[in-house]
Specification:
mainly alpha; Tetracycline Repressor, domain 2; 10 helices
């Protein structure tokens, strides 16, 4: 059975529409047209991610994707107009699942440090559990054109907004600190994924949480007695 694309942890929400799709059976079958299309799209998106993880965006051809997905060229162009459109679909699937994890983790109850710890854990777990999609999401996106980069910037803004909520940022300076932290997180993760250091990306969880713990403690000290809130 194929591995689902960017599985969502049961605590964080439902699996993506294309997750868990299998190769279509040979010969006559009772699958609906929608089920056939879902399977074909899912296999093509996974094949796109895996081919680009191996060859990079520029050196991945539609033929590379077809060989991995075991789908015909005619079927590919019925579903996608180009390699870029297939990439965008795979990117959207990856981003939707990562954001769903983040939104659930950051929006649940708890003190700021607890919410941040859950959010960064969900983010890193989603990426490191699917290295091919993670590389597509974090690395190959920069080679895929302006449309995808605009989407990447929007996701970065949503990530920052979630961290601002999780950290209970109270003023412009604290909100900017959250934006800077998100930029640092994505850079650190991208550097590790670019060299296929999955364990290194996963290991960022503890030091990042420690950094936020120190920042929250410093905030409470700066505000003086009588204004503290629980950090954990």
């Amino acid at each position: 059975m194929p591995t689902p694309a960017l599985d969502v942890h049961p605590s964080y929400g439902p699996a993506p529409p294309e997750a868990g799709v299998a190769t279509l059976p040979r010969g006559p079958h009772k699958l609906s047209r929608d089920e056939v299309v879902r399977s074909q799209r899912g296999r093509l998106m996974r094949a796109m991610a895996e081919a680009m993880a191996e060859n990079g965006y520029a050196h991945t051809s539609v033929a590379d994707v077809l060989r991995r997905a075991r789908v015909s060229r005619e079927t590919f162009y019925q579903l996608f107009s180009s390699k870029q459109e297939c990439f965008i679909a795979a990117y959207e699937q990856a981003s939707s699942m990562i954001l769903a994890n983040l939104e659930h983790a950051a929006g649940t109850s708890g003190a700021p440090l607890e919410r941040f710890d859950r959010a960064i854990g969900a983010y890193l777990d989603a990426l490191t559990s699917e290295p091919a999609f993670a590389r597509l999401f974090m690395v190959e996106v920069y080679s895929a054109g302006a449309e995808v980069l605009e989407r990447r910037a929007e996701i970065q803004r949503r990530f920052s907004a979630l961290m601002i909520t999780a950290a209970d940022a109270r003023n412009g300076r604290e909100r900017f600190a959250c934006e800077a932290l998100v930029a640092a997180i994505t850079t650190l993760v991208t550097m590790r994924l670019a060299v296929n250091d999955i364990e290194g990306a996963r290991a960022l969880h503890e030091p990042l949480t420690g950094l936020v713990r120190d920042a929250l403690a410093s905030r409470e000290v700066d505000q003086g007695p009588g204004t503290s809130r629980d950090l954990t």
